Structure formats: structure tokens, C-alpha cells
Amino acid sequence: MSLVRFLIVLGLGTVLSWSAWVLVVALLDPQTGGVIALMLFYSSLFLALLGTLTLAGFFLRYWLEKETLIFQQVSIALRQATLLSGGATIALMLQSQRLLNIWVFLSLAIVLFVIEGFFLAGQSERHHQTSQSSSH
User: Fold this and answer.
1) Which of 11, 30, 54, 71 is deepest in the core (most CB within 10 A)?
2) Beta-carbon count within 10 A of 122 CB
């Protein structure tokens, strides 16, 4: 799949996700809709945030990091958008149950930073190994 086609599909999916989220907010009452209404709310919000943050992250990386491969930029943007969208969705779920406070939020943020750190460390090590093998 070409980059343009991927971005178009991602953009359309993001618009559909935001539309679904608006419909869920407008038409479903969490008090009477029960678990299904909450699942639809959180899943549509997660997907909408995922698409939006992936597109924003990609275009920001494309603009700022001209030397990085385009599909690597997409991969990084998607990974970071997944972490941020998941973190935001989890924080909202905890808040809806009145379980979110500053310490829980900071713990969640630290976990997300550590996960991203593992990915960055792996990328750095792969880059280091690649540069060493190409210099020999």
C-alpha cells in the first residue's frame, strides 16, 4: 500500500471514528445503556484519538525529520499514538469510576514513558548494530 493510500484510509477511518463517538455521546445514555454504551464510548474514542494522533504525529515528524524514512515515521507515530490514546482512555475509565488522582495519573504516565523508553532503547541498539556492521 502506498503512503498516500494509507494516509487516506487512516483519515477516513479517523473521521468515521469521530462520527461514531459523536453518535454514541448524542444517542446513548451511559446510565441506561450499561456496559455496551460504555464499551462503544471508550472504543470509538480510542480509535478516534489513535487516528488523529497518528496523523498529527506523522505530519509533524515528516515536517521536522526529513532524513528519517517515511514508513519509519509512520511506525513511530502509530506506536506513540497507541500509547497516548490508550493512556487517555484508561485515565478516562479510571476517572469515571472516581479512581483517578494525581498519583494514579503519574503512575500511568510513568508506565507509558517506560514502555516508550524500551522501544527507543531497542531502536537505538538496532541502529548502533546496523552502523557497526556497515562500517566493517
Assistant:
1) 54
2) 10
**Single pTM value for the model:** 0.87
Polymer length of the chain: 136
CA 119 to chain centre: 14
Instruction: Give the C-alpha separation, 17 to 85, whole Å.
Output: 13
Q: How deeply is 103 buried, as exposed, middle or buried, from its count of CB atoms within 10 A (0-12, 13-18, 19+)?
A: exposed
Instruction: Give, in degrees to the nearest 5, the angle at Cα 20 between 35 and 2.
Output: 125
Domain residue ranges of the chain, discontinuous segments joined by +: 3-100
The pLDDT tens digits for 64-117 are: 988 878 889 999 999 999 999 999 999 999 999 999 999 999 999 999 999 999
pLDDT value, residue 7? 96
Contact 55, 10 (CB under 8 A): yes
Q: Give the count of beta carbons closer than 10 Å to the beta carbon of residue 55.
A: 18
